Each structure stands twice: as C-alpha cells, then as structure tokens.
Amino acid sequence: MAQKALCIMSGGMDSTLCAYLMKQEGYDIVALHFNYGQRTVRKELAAFRSICEDLGVSESYEIDLDFFKTIGASALTDMTIDVPTGGLEAGVPVTYVPFRNGIFLSIATAIAEKEGCEAIAIGVVEEDSSGYPDCTESFIRAFEKAANLGTKETTAIGIRMPLVHMNKSDIVAEAVQLHVPLHLTWSCYQDEEEACGVCDSCRLRLRGFERAGTKDPVSYRV
C-alpha cells in the first residue's frame, strides 16, 4: 500500500508542481485547499478542482477560513487595500497574509494525522518569493518539530518543501519536464478572467517563464 502525502494546493504553479513531484515519488495524494476570503477565491478553487482531477487524487478537502477577512491587514483579504502593481520591491509586501502558512500547516497537520499521511507537502519558495516570512525553510522546519510534539506519539509527519531553494525559472522548467498542466493553474492576485500581468505574483511567474525560455500557457490582460 502506497504512503500518503497531504498536499496543500492553492491552484497556483508552485503548489501544483509540488503535488506532482510527490506523486512522482509514489505517494497517494490527499489534496487540501483553503478558501480564506482571498480576492481570487473563485479562480483558485476552480483551478484546484481541475488540477485534482488531472492528478487523480485519492481524497480532497476544501476548508473555509473566513476569519482571515476579519483579521485583514493584507491586500489579498482586505478589499480596501489595493494590490500593488508597481513592480517587485524589497521587504514584506502588503500582499502578505499574517501567519497564513502557519495556520494552514496547523490544519494540515490535523488532517494528515487523521488520514494517516506520512508527509505534508507545501510549495513554499524562499529564494525567489515575494519576501513572505512564513515561506522560509527555517520556519517550516521549526513548525515540523512543533507539529510532531503536538500530535500522538504514533504520529510522525515530515513536512516536505521540494521547491524551497528553487527559483521561478527552475520551477517552470521542472513543471514542463513533468508535463504539469500549467494551463490549469492561477497565480494572479486579481479576480479577473485573464491574469493581470502586473501584480507581484504575475511578474514573478512571467519572469520565470521568460528565463526558462518557454511561453506561459495562461492568458494575460496586459
């Protein structure tokens, strides 16, 4: 019987590649998606469901976390804060959602324990990310230790982050090589029919495709 991996999947390129890498290793995939009041909840959920169908997941979870909108403080969950489009800047951007990955991983740990998963996989990228502090290897390793201290003695969960030291061009190249359905993914911070092409996430994605020497199959407004 194959081991199981719980994959946190936003519907974006990074977490999608992460799930396909885990499948390539022989894991049965349990997919987990969060609807947390983000601007792109509709597009991300549709992407997640399409990717799960292509991936052939054994089980999937869609968790609603409305409290993120109450907390606010992020352009992704507070509609009064504009998504920045002026280009990539140093420091933590206003699109950072406070401790989002910590909260996601806490819930993922509970589901992974219940499902008997040996691994949780998360598509964090440290070297070529938007500067989010909860996307670092040091944070994930610390959380892994805490998760295993706070679960049953018979539970042993490893948190996998296969992309953490990759850049976007590496991610694009790896995804193309594995025939990951990048046309199904959604990375834009805006809720539109076509990706905006100017938000931080779009800029990082487009730069990755350019440096990888291949064309992004997703349509852009600009």
Summarize the structure.
The protein has a single domain, classed as 3-Layer(aba) Sandwich (Rossmann fold), CATH 3.40.50.
Task: Describe what this molecule looks like in 3D.
The protein is globular, with a radius of gyration of 17 Å. It is 38% helix and 11% strand. By secondary structure, it is an alpha/beta fold. The protein contains seven helices and five strands, in the order E-H-E-H-E-H-H-E-H-E-H-H. It has a five-stranded parallel β-sheet, with helices on both faces. The chain has one domain (4-212): Rossmann fold. The model has no long low-confidence stretch (mean pLDDT 95).
Write the SSE topology.
Elements: E1 4-8, H1 13-24, E2 28-35, H2 41-55, E3 59-64, H3 67-71, H4 100-115, E4 119-121, H5 137-149, E5 158-160, H6 168-177, H7 200-212
Helix pairs in contact: 6-7
Number of strands: 5
What is the percent of helical residues? 25-40%
Shape assignment:
globular
**Radius of gyration, Cα only, in angstroms?**
17 Å
Number of domains: 1
| CATH homology superfamily | HUPs
Strand order of the largest sheet: 3-2-1-4-5
Could you state the order of secondary-structure elements as H and E?
A: EHEHEHHEHEHH
CATH topology: Rossmann fold
Distance between the termini: 48 Å
- The second-level CATH architecture is 3-Layer(aba) Sandwich
What is the overall number of helices?
7
| Helix-and-strand structural type | alpha/beta
Would you state the CATH class? Answer: Alpha Beta
| Low-confidence parts | none
Proportion of strand residues: 5-15%
Q: Biggest β-sheet, characterized?
A: 5 strands, parallel
Give average pLDDT, whole number.
95
